[in-house]
Structures
1.
Amino acid sequence: MRSGETLRRYRIGLMFSTTGPYAALGRSARDGALMALEEVNAGDVSGVAGLQLDPVTADPGGIPSDYERLTAAMLEGGGVRHIVGGITSWSRKDMIPVLERHAALLWYPCPYEGFECNDHVVYLGACPNQHLVPLVDHVLAAGARRAFLVGSNYVWGWETLRVARERLSARGVEVAAERFVPLGGTDCARLIEEIDNHGPDLIVNSLIGPSNHAFLQALAQHREQGAPCLVVSANQTEADLPDLGPAADGLLSMGAWFESVEGPDTAGFRARIAARYGEDYRASCFFATAYAGVRLLAKGLALAGTDDPRAVFAAVAGAPRQTVLGRVTIDPVTRHTSLIPRLAVARGGIFQILADAGEALAPDPYLTRVAPAAPLRRAPDLRIVS
Amino acid sequence: MKPVVDLNFTGRLAWVLHPAETLRQQLATRLAVLGVEAVGIWPVAEASAPRPDVVFVDVDTGHDEQIPWPAGTAPVPLIGLVRSESPGRLTWALEQGVDAFLPQAALGLVYSTLVIGSAKCAERLRNARREVEVARRAGQRHLLIRAANQVMAREAVDELTALKRLRAFAMARRVSLEDAAALFLDEHELRGRRGGQR
């Protein structure tokens, strides 16, 4: 900080479940947010000099009702007007009514299923036109014929699989089954049995946390004996790889960031991550998005000169911003972020980029600009005479 | 057959009947995200205005003359924009047959309102068509009785068998039972008259 500048201190809430059923994702995002806060506070970030961001952390442990309770506690105590956090849509939807009552802003750093535009949220993660639609289009081009869909039993699983089912069916891919596993559930024997019976050549996997790990481990054991089958997902990141081990090999994932992304900022970013968390630390899309979110929040605070959520959002939205995710823009109306979709395959404990769109894709949270799939042929209506 | 739910509104035209330019603009911005073009109108649309695919109307200040159809018969979804919740105004909106309500403080929820409004409008139109059809068929009951009597007399069968034969005839012709009765009478009475002329 230059002498003569006034230090502006703001308290920033970090609401991540670092324990509980999706703790690995919560820890990853929290680590990214904390690293960005530290860099801002150290004066290492140009354009935000004079800011001091004090983290106020809370761990809802993946318990939905605790998100509401802890958000209220964070905001009612005064001083916190911005929260970075939430992993599941369930958690975000539990936080929104509290954010609305306090006119606060949530910086949400996760891919999600779309169909929401709340005035108290900044959607930093990808929505389906940026993850699932390009992923499904990729497997369609590869010639999938029979698909098996499996997801966690909440809105992420329901909606991503709905989009996958409609898009695959419309292009003539048979959807053999669509199954949901309770959040945190790890009993996959029945699923594997069904997959064995149906013999799909494609599995769309929207499981998260331990369910995802248990399923992919069980599937890997099964695949050693059976026919190969492509597994694709819009929510797999490096945060899952330590738990998955070799079971992840061959898994295709679409995301806004992977460790192997090439870009002008990536090498420096990786070096700073290694310096902060150790050489063996695995950063993920959750990490990078939470990091980018805090940097964008800091930029907004610096530009607005206040932490008033509306002023901060207005200051940072609508113009391209260079981030570790690439050059992105937060849409002032939908409040979603343009992102660069990247397709990667897990091999030997890392995600290798297969395709990088290069340019940011505008968000389309209601899938209004995605070309509708051709309608299914329907049987003629029969008339029953009464 | 289960009705198909409308989930994509790209390319549709909305009328926004509201006195406040700011509200009209805010809603138009939200609708543009959904691919819906909005035309702000107050108080009444010009006769030459293009027909809308959906109409939003301010419940507080809306009036019958603004809605280009008799109350309850709008052929497109009618969505009430709610502000003050006064009972008299809500009653007016219900008499207009609004298909869904959107609080003006929650314009971010316009997508779900459109989905629900479109589904409810489709259901309302289906019910209206069904009522017309039921009334039309009720008006043909005398033909059904005449046809059944003729089958009973011609074929020496009881009433149930006569009705069963008429139902089979209806299924073969893919028409309602009442229409089948009318067809049956046309064919047989015509044949009878022709026979009489010979």
Note: Residues 13-136 of chain B form a domain with the Rossmann fold fold (CATH 3.40.50.2300).
2.
Amino acid sequence: MSTSSITFNRRSFIRTSSLASGGLLIGFNLFTACKPKVQPPVDISQLNFNDFNAFIKIADNGAVTIYSPNPEIGQGVKTAMPMLIAEELDVAWDKVYVQQGILDTENYTRQLAGGSQSIRLGWEPLRQTGATARQMLVNAAAAKWGVAPSECTTSEGVISNAKGETLGYGDVVKEAAIMEVPESVTLKEPKNFKIIGTDAQNVDIDKIVTGKPLFGLDYKVDGMVYACVLRPPAFGQILDSYDDTKAKAMPGVIDVIRIGEKAKELSKEGIGNWTVAMGKSDKVVVIAKTTWEALKGKEAISAQWVNGSVLESTEFQDKQLIGLLDGKEFKTLRKDGDINIAFAKADKTLERTYESPFLPHNCMEPMNFFANITDEKIHLVGPVQTPEFAATAVAGMLGRDVKDVHLEMTRMGGGFGRRLYGDFVYEAAEIADLIRKPVKLVFSREDDMTAGTYRPAIKYRIKAAIKDGHVTAYHLKEAAIGGNMYGLIPNFFPAGAIENYQVDVANYQSNITTGAWRAPYTNFLAFAEQSFFDELAEIMEVDRIQLRLDLLEKVKGSTDERIQYSPERMQNVIKVAVDKSGWGKKEDGVFQGFAAYYCHNSHVAEVADVEIENGVPVVKKVTCVVDCGIVVNPLGAKNQIEGGVIDGVGHAMYGDLTFMEGKPQSQNYDKYRLIRMGEIPVVESHLIQNEIAPTGLGEPTLPPAGAAVANALKAATGNRFTQQPFSKFPELMQVPTKPIIG
Amino acid sequence: MPKYDIKVNGISKSVDVAEDTPLLWVLRDHLDLVGTKYGCGIAQCGACTVHIGGTAVRSCSLPIASVGVQEITTIEGLSEDGSHPVQMAWKEVDVPQCGYCQTGQIMTASAFLDKNPNPTSDEIKTAMHGNICRCASYTRIHRAVEIAATKLG
């Protein structure tokens, strides 16, 4: 048993017995301890049921409600995070009622969805929360019986003593509420887990399959109006003037207004190029009684736009990025040894350039947000991955106290990074502040695809030196739009495995708005790197798996604390993938490609199987092996794996957003191709079993998929894909008439 | 504005809307039936799928004036309590990730299985090809349709 010292102070543990709904509940507010200087929220005697946002509520009938603090975007945390609490509270999972917590910066920390970090960072505190509550209930029962707490055991919400007497949690909740908070609690050993590691259905499954209101677009209040926004049609254009005569005469249209003043304030803070863009141009807003009338009203606006900056085309951007790669202006993120000496002494060198397009996020639920602003309160409701940031920014933008903001998170129809950026929250708030009515801002699909914060177009150039059969230098150069790879990525593989190693980045500041997209940067870097290692093995004439294993071997025992990945765990997933995929043992006609990648603290290896159908290579299967430590919910985990792999295959094959004079050339799904049912491979997933603390799973299986497919396509066609999407190069999809050797 | 009498989930409703208003927005904004989702507005993604006279139809591209007297079934009317075999299969497999597209997937699958209760794997793929799932829960959608078929067949 591991004893966990709790630094939580007693005041972070709040409880109440005066509930508007009747009944007696205790609430636990232990995350306050993660922010030690925070004062307890308010006088607890003044709290009522609806104000109470702690993690656990236990009613006097024993009913348990657990609040899931983080936003749910489809990654499964609304199920998995409460499972961690329930495990240590020792209650039956099927008796637990899970509810989404609201934004509450006083009582929760890190209420955001991003970077696949919710489970990793919640692992300790959430279990401690459950264990502390359990211990207080046990202490109360022990006092009632006049026995030592150590003589008591719990199981599924019932406390037993040595004499065989039992008390339900509800029977002692009143006494537990006035117990001292224990200074330390004992957490279960993994072998004693009853909930963690078992399959748990999505907690919202019944509501999802029956179409209950769950999502931002479903939220509605009496008197609510709808707003659709006309934004510049091209990046770089700004609003000059507009004629709203026709729109104002349309049925259901209430008003047409101009916004932008408040956004200019926000853009001064310059948080990413999307806020800067928000401040550049005013926008025209149609307010109507219904969504359709607002959408139609928007179409009836006639607006004139002027060019505020260069209207970029994809061809122009490509030239800028290639120019950067060819140039000398780089920022060096990591430098080991001296690559130039190694290149000078090399027997052979290999250099390749890999190119990716912009990608929109394409959440199935288009961006939207509800806002209702009065002098007393700023009420915001909707799907956002960064509620705390959004609330703070809205308060700042409107010159209001952040305490006026009440923000509720809805379930989100996808996130993929798009909902990290609150542009739609600020637009909704600015509109609501002007019209002073409850209003729902709705993006059409076209608005969603053309006013994005896209995955930036990126080009990588990788060069390696080979000397005496060893890789002696590795030089990775990145030219990206709107930002470069973040801090830790240069310390991913192959950092530490190659003596002379350098990562250089250069940036082109475009007026096209960019941001994080599922597995930011690594979503394409993994493709470049793992394609490159395959080519490297080919020119070195060595086994492609062995090359990777040998490089990893060199990292073992490294004292370099910057190295992020574990060479042992990476070697293991590679070996398991080789075994499970039947690597090298496939019958004729099955062409395999391999890739392995570490990101978001998890290790993944994938093998893609390509077969020829009607003369065209088709991805039939992907075997995916994941080491993300302890798997909290295998049912949800496998869903993430399957989705991540297919998403990775789909975007590598089809994802493409080009620009012509600043205008996105795809606006809807007629011209933007997403992978569909008829194109999916079978995904066979394998989760490594161990007792290491869990890490993320929302992102890590996506990055290696593109490289595994490209390497399999090379085997099938003899052609090397260095640009995405692959479907853009039908000539490379031609299958040679002669069989491929090697 | 013209008045339209329609029958949704067995109940007669009367709505005052412009004739070009898509059925999707009548359901969502006028009748509070928000289980039918807006995804693209151009009949490309399938999130808005409902049944009209038993056939799967994209409600985002069907003007209210074209609906007529045909019976409309939305996800809210597929069953009262989520007990339709397709919904049961969706729960058994635990299909959803974000869940937004799933009502449309279920409506497409249920209309398809009504017409073809014993489909092959390829027939399922063809039938479901028109419904996008951005989370790519496709392998589970496929499995759930197979399971529902065994329950219906």
Note: Confidence is low (pLDDT under 50) at residues 1-24, 29-54 of chain A.
